[in-house]
Structure formats: structure tokens, C-alpha cells
Amino acid sequence: MTLTRFPKHLIAIALASVLGPAAYAAPSASDTDFMKKAAQAGTMEIEASRLARQKPSDSAVKDFAAQMVKDHEAAANELKQLASRKKVTLPSAPDASDRATLEALKGLSGAAFDRRYADTVGVQAHMQAVDLFRGASQTASDTDVKSFASKTLPTLEHHLDMARNLAAKNK
């Protein structure tokens, strides 16, 4: 027997009764906004960190950047899967402000690059990300969104600690 013989609404009702109604409910506007902002922030941090694997004079900056690419790509992939399940379209490119940050970084090298990357991508971006994810971990109405934010938050807090140490070292 195939499922195509049953009306789609009956299949959805049956699945919702097994998986729970939240599995098929569209996320709230604030949860959707969180996912889009998280994707935007992650994209910028990944692109900036790819630059930082090539341009720094300090090996600690290069190591930090490698960790950022690894962790943020993993989170981005998880977020893409979540967004796909929730039928949310995520931004795929940096916004104008992030493009300006990336362009500024491209124009720097050596110690100047190290300082700017540690301050803007390391500390400032992670402070914003921690605030964003902390808020969603506490207030998201969609349980999957809340779980993603809660799961990712400790990694971002660790990144912020690492970034603060890196920025202090590169002043």
C-alpha cells in the first residue's frame, strides 16, 4: 500500500499525532528571524575566518580561524537542515555591513589584520552571536529552534572567550 492513495492532509495529521504538531508547524516570525540572523552571522564569520587562515602574522590567529571555520560550518549545516525542515529560506551571502567588514579585512595583512580580525570577527561578532543565541535559547517558541540555539550557545561562548584572549594578545 502506498501513501499516495491517502490525502495529504490525512498523512500530515497522522504524522503530527506521532511526531507532535510542532514538527509540521511553521516557526514564529521571531524564530524565523533568529534563523536568518544566525545564518547571516555564520556566513560572515566563516568567510572572514577563511581569510584569516591565509593573512595573519600570528599563528594563534590562524589556529583560531581554523577552529571558527570548522565549528561555524558544522553549525551552518545543522541550521540549513533545520531551516529546510521548517520551510525557511536562509540568506546565502553576507549583507552590506558584513561585506564592508570583509572588504576591510581583505585590505589588511600581518599584525593589522590580526588586530582587526580578533576585534571584529572574534570579539564583536561573537558578542552579538552569544546574545542572539541566548535570546533564542530562552524565548524561541519552536522546540527545534530552541534546541538548536541551546546546543550551539556553549560553543559560541567558548569562541568569545577564545576571541577575547586573542584580542588581548594582539593589541
From TrEMBL:
<dbReference type="Pfam" id="PF13628">
    <property type="entry name" value="DUF4142"/>
</dbReference>
<protein>
    <recommendedName>
        <fullName>DUF4142 domain-containing protein</fullName>
    </recommendedName>
</protein>
<dbReference type="InterPro" id="IPR025419">
    <property type="entry name" value="DUF4142"/>
</dbReference>
<keyword id="KW-0732">Signal</keyword>
<feature type="domain" description="DUF4142">
    <location>
        <begin position="30"/>
        <end position="166"/>
    </location>
</feature>
<dbReference type="InterPro" id="IPR012347">
    <property type="entry name" value="Ferritin-like"/>
</dbReference>
<feature type="signal peptide">
    <location>
        <begin position="1"/>
        <end position="25"/>
    </location>
</feature>
